[in-house]
Specification:
Layout: H1 2-22, H2 26-37, E1 49-55, E2 60-64, H3 77-87, E3 93-100, H4 110-119, E4 120-130, E5 135-139, H5 140-143
Parallel strand pairs: 3-4
Antiparallel strand pairs: 1-2, 1-3, 4-5
The chain binds zinc ion.
Zinc ion is lined by residues 76, 78, 108-109, 111-112.
């Protein structure tokens, strides 16, 4: 009985997440990431990236990569979008689009995968696109299959 209630609740939550995620099309989210990419500050690598993150309440936050002359201060587009969203009160993401101009789609770096996992629940869609129109869709679990997260820091561990 308890398992079936939990399963029913999870199924309901998943369909609600999917309904929210579907309220903005993947193409529209990709377009917002493309627009954000236009603002990239990448004078050293000349590799411009844009990201658009959709939150569980239907908002979209965008980001671009920002390079600095002290290279280690550089920030990726994905984390700029994540930090903008979190600073505005968002705590849960349903999907994210990342766009770069490369012959294949460009996956998020390891730091961004970890940062996405922190706020993205299981099943969060990661949409990778390039300017040539190639699109690849993954679940966050495929990008970070064995994540470290807050469950390891709980008091009853
Ligand atoms: Zn990154």
């Amino acid at each position: 009985m308890r398992i079936s209630r939990t399963t029913t609740k999870r199924t309901r939550e998943k369909s609600l997440r999917n309904a929210i995620a579907d309220s903005i099309s993947d193409d529209e989210l990709i377009e917002q990431a493309k627009q954000a990419r236009q603002e990239a500050h990448a004078p050293f690598s000349n590799f411009q990236v844009g990201a658009a993150i959709m939150t569980s309440d239907g908002r979209v936050y965008t980001g671009c990569n920002i390079e600095q002359s002290v290279y280690s201060l550089t920030m990726c587009a994905e984390r700029v979008a994540i930090f903008k969203a979190v600073s505005e009160g968002a705590r849960e993401f349903v999907k994210v689009a990342v766009v770069a101009d490369f012959e294949t789609v460009t996956p998020p770096c390891g730091c961004c995968r970890q940062s996405l996992w922190e706020f993205a629940g299981p099943g969060t869609k990661v949409i990778l696109a390039n300017l040539a129109g190639e699109v690849r869709r993954l679940d966050i679990e495929e990008l970070l299959p064995l994540p470290f997260d807050a469950t390891f820091l709980e008091d009853d561990r």
